[in-house]
Design goal:
Blueprint lengths: L8 E5 L2 H13 L7 E4 L3 H11 L6 H4 L1 H6 L5 H11 L4 H12 L3 E5 L4
Helix pairs in contact: 1-2, 5-6
Length: 114
């Protein structure tokens, strides 16, 4: 399996503190700034956790221009699922994770930068 075929890693945690801990663990195993993302159902919560953890948010580079622009018109749930599938999760995985985010949890995502 090549790096471009590698499945992303996803871990659901209860809160931002746990998300930062998981991010730090991933960094210590060799994942870098461009490899780790967090998602929460509320955009401002995602921003805060990403800033605290010292990582970036899923953006145009990961999603592509079309999906990034389309997200302006999507519901938050649709936007989150789009972001997840752009990183390599299947539709079914994205649906599962989005339901967890609906419950107030946080998703930490890691993938090898290609």
């Amino acid at each position: 399996m090549s790096a471009t075929d590698a499945k992303p890693y996803g871990k659901v945690v209860e809160n931002g503190t746990q998300a930062v801990e998981v991010v730090n663990e991933l960094k210590s195993t060799g994942y870098g700034f461009d490899d780790i993302f967090v998602l929460a159902h509320q955009k401002d919560r995602t921003d805060k956790i990403a800033d605290t953890a010292g990582i970036q948010e899923i953006g145009i580079k990961e999603e592509g221009l079309f999906d990034s622009l389309a997200n302006v018109f999507r519901s938050r749930g649709d936007e989150l699922r789009s972001k997840m599938t752009s990183l390599g999760f299947t539709k079914e995985e994205a649906d599962f994770y989005e339901e967890e985010l609906d419950r107030g949890k946080v998703l930490v995502i890691a993938r090898r930068h290609t």
